[in-house]
Amino acid sequence: DLKAMDFIDEYKITLNKNDNVEVTLIYDADAKTDLDLLLIDLNGYAILTQNRTVETTANSKVTLTGTVGASYTGTTPSPASGEFYIAVQRWASRGAKYSLNVNVNNQNPLSTLEVTSIGLNPASINVSSQTTQATVRVTNNSTTTAATLATLALKLTLSTGADVTSEYTISGPTPTLPQAIAASSFQDFVFVITPNTTPALPTNGNVIVSASGTQTGGAKILGANITGTFTTTGGTAAGPNLIYQSITVSGNLKPGGVANVAVNVRNVGTLGGTYNMPGSITFMQGATDVTANFTAASTPVSPALPDLIGAGQTKKYTFTFAIGATTPLGTTTVSVSGGLADNPTSPGTGTFVVKSPFTVKGGGGGGGCVAAESTPWMPALLAAAVPALALLRRRRKESR
Fold first, then answer.
1. How far are the Cα atoms of 27, 328, 400 from residue 289, in angstroms, in the given order?
2. C-alpha span between 182 and 187 (Å, rounded)
3. 153 contacts: CB under 8 Å, gap ≥ 6
4. Are β-strands 227-233 and 124-126 bridged in parallel, bridged antiparallel, or unpaired?
5. Half-sphere exposure of 187 (CA within 13 A, CB side)
6. Burial status of residue 267 (CB atoms within 10 A of its CB: 0-12, 13-18, 19 or more)
7. Cα–Cα dist 4/194, whole Å
């Protein structure tokens, strides 16, 4: 469920010479969709031929294949091994939701099973007395080999963005799983969606139904961008519900230094809500209020408040304070509370340590997170835990 809204999205990958690479782009398409798929080196040279796509079908895919080190599309010699980028490039078209499957040396082959449609009947229900059925069609794209669907599950999301799956009981599917699907054939699976009546009725609005599952062997089935929709009435009105998810403190945490208070606010409600400037931010050392030793920066918070947080979203706000030169050393608790309208009703807290200038090693942490002090073995541990072929990060390509 990535979105090609920028000019180019890039994903770093480590490859070796003579690796066989197959990258498949699956995306929502219409007459205005124009995406390119490329494998490029760090200098921006295309290694594998780009596939320009202008499509009219609802769900399209394009596959890029080649061997690393074979040749460029240009004249520059191809590198042997190292880091490369898989690039999804949007031209003069609107963005499209998409997903990528990366298969190196056939270690992660694309599933042949794909969700191709989701129908709801009836498409409008009163949640106090009615149910609806979701019919999920799974198609086997292989022309020669049968495949077995091992798992299939539904997710219900309000059109505002809130996950409302827990507001319903979902039974099925019929037929039961596992289920073999013949080559070039499809199978319809029926789920019954029943609104829960306790502790409260589901939220009114448009409910988007999506499906995910696995093929025997563990491959994730395609078609995550295929959805169905039903409308609900007779329930409760949508509303925001902001909470403090975590509060952490970093910076030069010593007398005369700087404390950056990072406040993560999550909207667990079913409608967008506005986070306003909190009523107070206090600093305590045990029972002693040391707030006077922390002076807010001229720009009190970044990004600026008030700010809208969509249903199901989490946003981070950073409040910057100068630490007074006479601030006592020791464990400090920061508490954020109050404010207007949608602000969380319960305060959020985090802890950090004000240290001596001679022993400070880095930032402090709070809110249940690991402190930011130097831990030499951690990078090596993380590196060992991350597969070499994982898509590591998304970055916007600089203008050339």
1. 55, 11, 53
2. 9
3. 170, 211, 212, 213
4. parallel
5. 20
6. buried
7. 35
pLDDT one-digit tens code per residue, 203-249 = 999 999 999 999 998 888 888 778 999 999 999 999 999 999 999 99
* Residue 145 scores a pLDDT above 70: yes
13, 25, 385 from 83: Cα distances, Å:
6, 20, 18
CA 128/CA 342 separation, integer angstroms = 28
Place of tokens 């979105």: 3
Pick from 241, 242, 239: which is nearest to 348 by CA? 242
Q: For the whole prediction, is pTM greater than 0.70?
A: no
- Residues 39, 48: contact at Cβ < 8 Å? yes
The DSSP line for 353-373 is: EE--TTT--S----TTPPP-S
CB 212 within 8 A of CB 224: yes
The span from the CA of 168 to the CA of 39, in Å, is: 43
